[in-house]
Amino acid sequence: MVLGKVIGTLVASRKEPTLEGLTLLVVRACDVDGNPNGSIAIAVDAVGAGIGEVVLYCAGSSARQTKVTQNKPVDATIMAIVDEIAVGNERRYVKD
Q1: Helix, strand counts (H, E) of the chain
Q2: What is the mean pLDDT of residues 64-87?
Q3: CB–CB of 9/36 below 8 Å?
Q4: Long-range contacts of 33-37 (CB under 8 A, 24+ apart)
Q5: Check whether domain 2-83 has CATH 2.40.50.220, yes or no
Q6: Which terminal CB of the chain, N or C, has fewer other CB atoms within 10 Å?
Q7: Residue 81 forms beta bridges with which residues?
Q8: DSSP state of 41
Q9: What is the pLDDT of residue 96?
Q10: pTM higher than 0.90, yes or no?
Q11: How many CB atoms lie within 10 A of CB 56?
């Protein structure tokens, strides 16, 4: 799993039929403070995430193991919206 921040949306009017109805979001990897620190991915949203939210996403074959993405040609899936991150006894991120 990768920690990321939703930074945008992607709209594709023509796509593979099994992708119809799926929401595609632009996600950038981030650190435990919610600061961008990595690459960008286009991920299927399986949980109703929104722009600006910190999320957990998976990539590769794991991305096809949710109910929303099973047997679909996806390489990244958002599977959780993060409420809080604590490292040791320090709260590093808390959702607004």
Answers
A1: 0, 7
A2: 95
A3: no
A4: 33/92, 33/93, 34/5, 34/93, 36/5, 36/7
A5: yes
A6: C
A7: 55
A8: E
A9: 86
A10: yes
A11: 16
